[in-house]
Amino acid sequence: MIKYSNGQIFTKKPKKSQQLSRKSNSFSHGNRGMNLEGDINISNEYYKIKGLCLITKRPTPINVVKVDYSKGAIITNAYFEKQSTTDYNGVWKGRYIDFEAKSTLKTTSFPLANISTHQIEHLKHVLKHNGIAFFIIEFARLEKVFYLDAKYVIDFYENSERKSIPYGQFLIHGYEIKKGYTPRLDYLVILEEIYGNS
Amino acid sequence: MIKYSNGQIFTKKPKKSQQLSRKSNSFSHGNRGMNLEGDINISNEYYKIKGLCLITKRPTPINVVKVDYSKGAIITNAYFEKQSTTDYNGVWKGRYIDFEAKSTLKTTSFPLANISTHQIEHLKHVLKHNGIAFFIIEFARLEKVFYLDAKYVIDFYENSERKSIPYGQFLIHGYEIKKGYTPRLDYLVILEEIYGNS
Fold first, then answer.
1. In angstroms, rounded to a whole number, what is the distance separating the alpha carbons of residues A155 and A149?
2. Cα(B38)–Cα(B188) distance, rounded to whole angstroms?
3. pLDDT-wise least confident of A12-21, B67-76, B121-130
4. Separation of alpha carbons A22 and A171, rounded Å
5. How far apart are the first and last CA of chain B?
6. Size of interface A-B (CB pairs under 8 A)
7. Tens digits of per-residue pLDDT, A45-101?
8. In the 8-state DSSP scheme, what is residue B179?
9. Residue from A99, A88, A188, A132 nearest B95 by CA
10. Is B116 in contact with A77 (CB distance < 8 Å)?
11. Cβ pair A91, B94 in contact under 8 A
12. Which ipTM score applies to this complex?
């Protein structure tokens, strides 16, 4: 049972079907991302409906080269651009929230190659302006999801000689995000724990 | 001369060439939007470099139907989706900022048809969570740009029988955003004025 600061209470039910589908999926690149992204999107929708916070996903940036106006406006030539910021941002108690979600198939460490220099720069700016910045990182094969402060990731990215963050560091510096029924991935309880009284 | 709360000072030079091109443009739908959008984007870039705030533009949402992987990943069939949120959001002094920018060719009022119900709903959520929400509205032919609080717009949208906000209301309830050289549209001085001491 979780009690939010606004007094709302709800219980969490483990969803067996979801865990099974997670286990049985092929861990293709697309599925992997979509599972974590889908879980976060559903959680954000839950938070919005419950009036707990408002977090939105930035659309994938696409560079449009050609549009056919003969049948409405159909894009006939375009390509995906790399996200220069992060996937999610929003507001919680007036405060700015910004985070990136990543999933890895590795079981012993999280490769920093998953994070772009642009994203690190973006998160440094967020921190400079006192925003709350973090990563949600999934170890898909371990079925574990962690909250890891952006400060820690930036420091590791810039100062460590290692090219990946060992799993053990997540246990020390991260917070495990519990999977549940509603919300699917309750990262807001972690924000409450860290920033709730500030 | 503008003095920001962090002590930075800069002078504003009117840019004649910009004003001329503004006057001479054809006010086509595309140009119009791009002028205002371009001016805001350049101002945001300036704010970022100067370390004053971090505001980013959400990419236009595009629904991708077909991707050709034979030559990389070329999108061959897709269409534009309506933005269900607003164009811009970000962080200033830890606070969440969210706004929509609109331009009109009308000279006596701003038609509410320019704003979608989804955007009104989104901004209501932002205000509920104590975010700072507003509109930047350009009267292109009058060469005037205003800051108008989202609360006022939402109230007008929901309670007025009029389908457009009269220009006079902008003079009473809005703040004129001065055009300058850097930043092109200095809306941050208005945030300083309204929220600087809160």
1. 10
2. 16
3. A12-21
4. 22
5. 23
6. 107
7. 999 999 999 999 999 899 999 999 998 899 999 999 887 899 999 999 999 999 999
8. B
9. A132
10. no
11. no
12. 0.81
In which residue are the tokens 């860290």 written? A194
Compute CA A177 distance to the chain's CA centroid, rounded to the nearest angstrom.
11
- In the predicted structure, residue A38 carries a pLDDT above the cut 60: yes
Q: How many residues does chain A have?
A: 198
Three-class HEC string of A135-185 = EEEEEHHHCEEEEEEHHHHHHHHHHCCCCEEEHHHHHHHCEECCECCCCCE
Cβ separation of B91 and A96 shorter than 8 Å? yes
Place of tokens 């005037």: B144
Alpha-carbon span B160 to B120, nearest angstrom: 14
User: What is the rounded (10 degree) CA torsion for A82, A85, A86, A91?
Assistant: -150
Which residues, listed in sequence order, are joined to residue A134 by a DSSP beta bridge?
A: A99, A149
Q: List Cα–Cα distances, B9 to B49, B50, B91, in angstroms.
A: 14, 10, 21
Q: Could you identify the residue written with the tokens 């220069």?
A: A84
Selecting from B58, B77, B129 the residue whose C-beta is nearest the C-beta of A53 gives B129
* For A131, nearest residue in chain B (alpha carbons): B94
A148: tokens are 């890891």
pTM to 2 decimals? 0.82
According to the model, what pLDDT value does residue A64 have?
Answer: 94
Identity (one letter) of the amino acid at A148?
L
Tokens of A44: 């954000």
Beta-carbon contacts of A197 under 8 Å, excluding residues fewer than 6 positions away, are none
The answer to whether A64 and A58 have CB atoms below 8 angstroms apart is: no
The residues of A whose Cβ lies within 8 A of any Cβ of B are 48, 51, 53-54, 56, 58-62, 64, 72-80, 85, 89-98, 122, 125-126, 128-131
3-state secondary structure of B62: strand
Nearest of B78, B59, B76, B58 to residue B67 by alpha carbon: B76
